[in-house]
């Protein structure tokens, strides 16, 4: 089961990179600008290291599927629904890089009606859920901390770029929380 699941996650990431590259090309043809190039390589490295650490911990420490796998698989499926919803809602604006079309309106549909960063929430949950599914507690712990650090760099950079470049981000920030819906 681990290898099928692992292969699924890798294939999913490769498809996302292809979508991101296509969107990058579309956006740059329309005059979009890229921000935060300095941290992007570290972010990619973090995600590759996560997948390798998961593989190593599960194989070399002979980890097995968690007894809570039905719950964890359900949570994982929920994150995938949210991921697809977020990507589809942003359309050509979705990317793994910070690429912003000047003076564009902020996307406020799909999960973006409820919170500012649903895709980062999905990634954060995955970095916990995927290792827990296979009892890879070391990977879950280390990469949850590393991801939190990466997002502490990435999100302020992205929000600053959106605020300085789009037409209405400052109003959107007033209305929406980063990771949880405002009630």
UniProtKB/TrEMBL annotation:
Localization (cell):
Membrane
Q: Which domain of life is it from?
A: Bacteria
Q: Where are the transmembrane segments?
A: 41-61, 68-88, 120-150
Has keyword Signal? no
Keywords tagged on the record:
Membrane, Methyltransferase, Transferase, Transmembrane, Transmembrane helix
Q: What is its main location?
A: membrane
Signal peptide positions on this chain: none
UniProt name for this protein: Methyltransferase
This protein's species is: Sutcliffiella tianshenii
């Amino acid at each position: 089961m681990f290898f099928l699941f692992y292969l699924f996650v890798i294939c999913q990431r490769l498809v996302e990179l292809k979508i991101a590259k296509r969107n990058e090309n579309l956006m740059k043809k329309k005059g979009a600008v890229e921000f935060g190039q300095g941290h992007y390589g570290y972010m990619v490295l973090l995600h590759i290291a996560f997948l390798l650490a998961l593989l190593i911990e599960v194989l070399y420490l002979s980890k097995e599927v968690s007894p809570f796998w039905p719950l964890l698989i359900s949570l994982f499926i929920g994150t995938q629904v949210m991921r697809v919803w977020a990507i589809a809602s942003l359309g050509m604006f979705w990317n793994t890089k910070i690429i912003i079309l000047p003076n564009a309106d902020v996307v406020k549909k799909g999960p973006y009606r409820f919170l500012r960063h649903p895709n980062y929430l999905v990634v954060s949950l995955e970095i916990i859920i995927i290792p827990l599914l296979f009892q890879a507690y070391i990977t879950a712990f280390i990469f949850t901390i590393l991801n939190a650090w990466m997002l502490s760099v990435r999100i302020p950079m992205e929000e600053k770029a959106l605020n300085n470049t789009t037409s209405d981000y400052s109003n959107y920030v007033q209305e929406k929380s980063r990771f949880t819906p405002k009630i």
